[in-house]
Design goal:
Length: 166
């Protein structure tokens, strides 16, 4: 399984970097392509900050934090013993997206963003989608674990009844 995890991470990073290469090549210089009228377009943006353009110009700090998070998640991916599909997929997606954007920051000094949805003002990229979906899966994993724990815990009434029986 660990080899599969690495292959999936590398594959997602490759897809991210490939798409960014073509986006930069086709869209750089102000070109914009409307894929679905009034909904989805592709526009080249050089993001020198974090999500939603926050923390502009903090490339080194963002790179360090991203690197630490990726190392931590890789450790969790290979050492955590209670994985299920959601937690594995979450780690793989977050690490792949983080590394994809980290490559841009180190190589270019900014992250290439290109996906624009009409109802969501910030422009984003494939790596951002990986991280977002990964975080959602991680939250679902935690919520499902909590639900399972609550089902296994005896209810207060059951505890009282068992104490009376003894």
């Amino acid at each position: 399984m660990p080899v599969l995890f690495v292959v999936l991470i590398v594959l997602a990073i490759g897809v991210d970097q490939g798409i960014k290469y073509f986006a930069a090549d086709l869209l750089q210089g102000g070109n914009s392509v409307e894929a679905i009228p009034n909904f989805l377009s592709f526009t080249y943006v050089e993001n020198r900050g974090a999500a939603f353009g926050m923390m502009q110009g903090m490339t080194i700090a963002l790179s360090v934090v991203t690197g630490i998070c990726c190392v931590l998640l890789l450790w969790i991916l290979f050492r955590y013993r209670s994985h299920n599909f959601l937690s594995r997929a979450a780690c793989i997606l977050i690490v792949a997206g983080g590394i994809g954007n980290l490559i841009d920051r180190i190589r270019l000094g900014y992250v290439i963003d290109f996906i624009k949805i009409s109802f969501f003002p910030p422009v984003f990229n494939f790596a951002d989608c990986c991280v977002t979906v990964g975080v959602i899966l991680a939250i679902l994993h935690v919520l499902l674990l909590e639900m399972q724990k609550k089902k296994k815990e005896p209810k207060a009434d059951e505890q009282t009844d068992s104490n009376l029986d003894s």
